[in-house]
Amino acid sequence: MTPEQYELAIKLESIFVPHARARRDALYHKGDRARFVHYTSAEAALNIINTRRIWLRNTTCMSDYREVNHGYDLLKEFFSKDTNEANFLSALDSCSQNVGQEAFELFNQWWIDIQSNSYIASISEHDDSEDMHGRLSMWRAYGGSSARVAIVFSVPWYSGASAALNVMFNPVAYLKKDEVCEEINTVINNIQRNQEFLSSVDRSILLAQTFNMLVAGVTCLKHEGFREELEWRLLYAPKRGSSPLMEYETKVIGGIPQIVYKLPLDVAVSDTLADLDISRIFDRLIIGPSQFPLAQHNAFVDALKQAGVLDADKRVFISNIPIRT
């Protein structure tokens, strides 16, 4: 992106996805990097480090069986009311004639693909207070009965890698029905207040932004009961926007054969990935409650050294939360 394109993207995000922009601002208020954590099995964590790849899995294989459909139902209920749909389309029409209706039609054309061919990797916000022990609820939720690990990453505010990989990086919103209505009404008000600016934006960009808002609405809305996860999502849609840097492979996970896409954390793949090379974004690794923490510690320190991580022996920690495994 050029500086102009970057500024445009930031302003459009604040208009069309204000919740995401507010979360991003809150998380990055101290600087241009923020820390996220990926809770997973020790085996999967070792695979991430050794291959410098994070797997993105199909939303139909996620543990939340209402993935995507939950958000779709909430958006559908809002727009099923004539006044809500009319207000949204009218606001967009004042910027570019019929762009809202065209975005709806585009979304409907792609809905089956969005529902069945969206691939995500989930990471959570990481608080400084969790540096030594991790988050108890996440240890219980991820990794099953196997050894569990938390990998903490320091992620830049913006990286050109996201464009090269064609990956969206958005926070999950845990909104109730009335909060979804409030959020979309905020978007309508934002469009109305920024009508002059949006009228100057290229129509194709405005159409794409509206479409992406709807996609984010169905892929990044979750039931409020998951709120403590503080989840962010890396979203890839190979049919809607592929990238030559994203590899895929059929794997068997939990007995289920499925396609996974592999997001590279390796500058050797392309110079555009320099900001996301694992040696640069790795912050620390926390070994969860386990019967064999020392063996894991030694194994992960060695793997991290092989991956080019400096001071690896000082960046692997053993959680001492006293729970039975």
Structure summary:
With 325 residues, the chain is α+β, with helices and mostly antiparallel strands.
Commentary on this structure:
Strands 1, 2, 3, 4, 5, 6, 7, 8, 9 and 10 form a 10-stranded mixed sheet that branches. Strand 9, helix 13 (293-306) and strand 10 form a beta-alpha-beta unit. The chain has one domain (3-318). The protein contains 13 helices and 10 strands. With 325 residues, the protein is of the alpha+beta class.
The overall pLDDT, averaged over residues, is 92
Number of strands: 10
Number of domains: 1
Which structural class is indicated by helix and strand composition? alpha+beta
The main sheet comes to: 10 strands, mixed
Low-confidence stretches: none
Percentage beta strand:
15-25%
Q: What is the approximate shape?
A: globular
Distance between the termini: 47 Å
Which sequence of SSEs, written as H and E, runs from N to C? HHEHEHHHEHEHEHHHEEEHEHE
Helical content band: 40-55%
How many helical stretches?
13
Radius of gyration: 21 Å
Characteristics of this structure?
single chain; 325 residues; alpha+beta; ten-stranded mixed beta sheet; 20% strand
What is the fold's blueprint, element by element?
Elements: H1 3-16, H2 18-27, E1 33-41, H3 42-51, E2 53-58, H4 69-79, H5 82-93, H6 99-116, E3 119-125, H7 136-141, E4 148-156, H8 161-165, E5 168-171, H9 177-193, H10 195-199, H11 203-219, E6 231-236, E7 247-253, E8 256-264, H12 278-281, E9 282-287, H13 293-306, E10 316-318
Parallel strand pairs: 9-10
Antiparallel strand pairs: 1-3, 1-4, 2-3, 2-8, 3-6, 4-9, 5-6, 7-8
Helix pairs in contact: 1-2, 3-13, 4-11, 5-9, 6-11
